[in-house]
Design goal:
Elements (H helix, E strand, L loop, with lengths): L1 H13 L11 E2 L5 E2 L3 E2 L7 E2 L6 E6 H6 L5 H5 L5 E5 L7 E5 L7 E5 L2 E2 L18 E8 L3 H4 L6 E7 L6 E11 L3 E11 L3 E15 L9 E15 L4 E19 L12 E22 L5 E18 L2 E23 L5 E18 L12 E16 L3 E12 L5 E12 L4 E12 L3 H5 L1 E2 L3 E2 L7 E14 L4 E13 L2 E4 L8 E4 L3 E13 L5 E13 L12 E11 L4 E10 L2 E5 L7 E5 L2 E11 L4 E8 L18 E9 L1
Parallel strand pairs: 8-11
Antiparallel strand pairs: 1-2, 3-4, 5-10, 6-7, 8-9, 10-11, 12-13, 12-39, 13-14, 14-15, 15-16, 16-17, 17-18, 18-19, 19-20, 20-21, 21-22, 22-23, 23-24, 24-27, 25-26, 27-28, 28-31, 29-30, 31-32, 32-33, 33-34, 34-37, 35-36, 37-38, 38-39
Length: 652
């Protein structure tokens, strides 16, 4: 890994970093920079949270630090409408599904840069560590009008920490725990009124555990993540920003037995020395100009990401691919008021985006032509209107037209509204929109000998969805409850079939319409000083066009988290409970593809706490899966039992 680490350090040092959109920042009394309560990913322009008509959740960096969360995927388990499937140990392939949709139907951004794998079309959360995260913005429902393909069911925007505006700070952390796990992190941040910058490095390694019920080989993982960002105020009206991120990770895994003629372990996960190696990089460079009166804002941005994935068996590469994505965009926003008409504030935005993607398979393949680079490009026009009326009613509408080089052109739209009813503590919110997800390169052209063959004739998936909800505040804001109903249809759903006589997996477009609907409930309480709690519940009914329940999506899921800070705010305790209801998965035990198996429901409990030793040094510890629950998120793959971790962190 040494050579890869050096490469990553060079990339991180050269990459330019920044946020998705320029925005104003506030300062605490101590001068520390803090993000305002804006949803950056909620449209062409950021919007204050209470003015958004979309169903959203924001997880702050303080909450992540308090709960000692190490992977973003584990934080998402507590979010209504989300279901996480990890194929084995932390660091292994991890899929996230939103509102019963597929894993590639949610767009993932890091500092506004799309980071999904170019070939697979979805983001593998197995490599996303929390260390430098300032906040996680989550929007549920179709967002393709703003973000294009893959934002069919929602958007997750991870915002990393930027430097302070009045000096230099150093954060460090080290921990060790069960299964030979070690983790360390170092962050250097600094700045002044004109420029700030931040750089962080994280490393995690674990010996893991055996993913299979057979044999005794442990399956571990290793992750090195480097990231950096800066913001430069060139003039009073011009800001330059940029960011860069590099991830080098290796995950050991076990394979499924697909041998023919059938063996006693056919269809089951068997002990093997398989490995998956992944390199990921992303970056952006942008400029934002604001007119002296603040009415006009112009943004120009160049961003990109890429990845290289290799699968090994016995040290020999059996499959692999590389991909790159490059985007260039410009957008302009004009703000004006109409005090005589509903005391309104209006923002009108327009933008243009260009995107090019490249994908190439790596040897071995049977046909040398499969090694040729595949390319596709798109041009997009985007328009948005945002209005605020009488300081209580908020409206947003957007439309997007994509001119696709490889598929038919598409047009998507989005509407949302929120009404904060005066003197009631009630906020109504609703949204509707359309989404599109293009076939992935791997679905079209991918090839794994004797296992998978792509389908170049696939059509894009299209979707229409809507939701409506009410947020009610009680006890002078100490208790907030939000209830949302959602409904979404999917056309041309891409699914995998196993046609005879070879039974090689092949993706196809399904006939008919797939339906998803459900209810999301979230309640947050701060009943007395130092105590906070959040509870969620989700009912998800997700079915394909034949009315069959989709796999790995439980009907019922829930979570409860609570934290208490005491001893003059120098110590804290926390606890989390995650409930995942019964669900189904595919099994291939009897050489009859598409058989179903039931995965039992389970409850996971995590507890922990921390204490400040000095003003700059603190110790922490936690126990995950406290009651040693046995469960499966993917059929045949073992999951981790009870684990314990202790560590120390400092800020200077």
């Amino acid at each position: 890994m040494t050579k890869l680490a050096l490469t990553g350090a060079c990339i991180a040092a050269l990459a330019l970093s920044g946020s998705a959109l320029a925005q104003d920042f506030d300062e605490d009394d101590d001068g520390a920079t803090r993000l305002p309560s804006l949803l950056v990913a909620a449209g062409i322009t950021p919007v204050e949270q209470e003015k958004s008509g979309r169903a959203f959740t924001v997880i702050t960096g303080e909450e992540l630090a308090r709960s000692q969360t190490r992977y973003v995927a584990d934080a998402l388990r507590l979010v209504p409408g989300f279901h996480v499937s990890r194929g084995g140990a932390p660091g292994g392939l991890t899929q996230v599904r939103v509102r019963g949709a597929e894993a590639n139907h949610v767009l993932v951004l890091v500092d506004g840069v799309e980071v999904s794998a170019v070939g697979q079309g979805e983001f593998d959360f197995g490599g996303l560590l929390v260390g430098d995260v300032e906040r996680i913005e989550i929007l549920r429902g179709p967002q393709s009008a703003f973000w294009g393909s893959n934002a069919t069911a929602g958007v997750i925007n991870i915002v990393t920490r930027r430097g302070p505006s009045d000096g230099v700070e150093i954060d460090s952390r080290a921990e060790t725990g069960t299964d030979g796990t070690v983790m360390g992190g170092l962050a250097l941040r600094g700045g002044n009124k004109r420029i700030d910058a931040a750089f962080s490095a994280q490393y995690r390694r674990t010996d893991g555990f055996n993913l299979s019920d057979f044999g005794s080989e442990k399956d571990g993982s290793e992750n090195l993540t480097l990231s950096g960002r800066f913001n430069l105020q060139l003039t009073d009206n011009l800001v330059i920003d940029g960011s860069g991120r590099f991830v080098d990770r290796l995950s050991e895994t076990d394979t499924q037995d697909f041998a023919y003629p059938p063996t006693p372990t056919q269809g089951l996960v068997i002990d093997s020395d398989d490995e998956m190696g992944m390199l990921e990089f992303s970056g952006t460079l942008g400029a934002t100009w604001t007119s002296p009166d603040g009415a006009w804002t112009h943004v120009a941005r160049l961003s990109g990401n890429g990845d290289k994935r290799e699968d090994f068996a016995g040290g020999v590469r059996i499959a692999g691919n590389t991909g790159t994505r490059l985007k260039a965009e410009t957008r302009s926003t004009y703000r004006f008021d109409t005090p005589a008409i509903a005391d309104a504030v209006h923002r009108i935005s327009a933008g243009y985006q260009w995107e090019r993607e490249r994908f190439r398979q790596l040897a071995p393949v049977f046909d040398p032509s499969q090694l040729a680079t595949k390319e596709r490009a798109a041009h997009s026009l985007i328009a948005e209107y945002r209005g605020e009326f009488a300081d209580q009613f908020y409206l947003n509408g957007a439309a997007r037209h994509d001119v696709n080089e490889a598929f038919a052109d598409s047009t998507t739209y989005s509407l949302s509204a929120a009404w904060a009813i005066p003197d009631t503590g009630t906020r109504l919110h609703a949204s509707l929109g359309t989404g599109v997800t293009n076939p992935t390169f791997f679905e079209q052209f991918g090839f794994i000998p004797s296992q998978f063959a792509g389908n170049p004739g696939l059509l894009p998936e299209t979707s229409f969805g809507w939701d409506i909800g009410v947020e009610q505040t009680f006890l002078d804001g100490d208790l907030i409850v939000d209830v949302t109903y959602f409904n979404q249809d999917l056309t041309n759903e891409i699914a995998t079939v196993y046609p005879p006589p070879t039974y090689i997996a092949t993706p196809v477009n399904l006939d008919g319409i797939s339906h998803r609907q459900g209810v999301e409930v979230a309640a947050t309480a701060r009943l007395f000083h130092g105590f906070s709690a959040t509870a969620t519940y989700t009912y998800t009914d997700s079915r394909d066009a034949d009315g069959v329940r989709e796999v790995r999506r439980p009907l019922h899921s829930a979570s409860l988290s609570a934290a208490y800070r005491f001893w003059d705010d120098r110590a804290d305790l926390f606890g989390e409970i995650v409930y995942n209801g019964e669900m189904e998965d595919n099994e291939f035990i009897d050489a009859t593809p598409q058989n179903r198996v039931r995965l039992d429901d389970y409850v996971l409990v995590t507890v922990g706490g921390s204490v400040e030793i000095t003003d700059n040094l603190s110790a922490f510890g936690r126990i995950e899966n406290l009651f040693d629950a046995e469960y499966e998120e993917v059929f045949g793959y073992n999951t981790q039992g009870r684990t314990a971790f202790v560590g120390i962190k400092g800020r200077f």
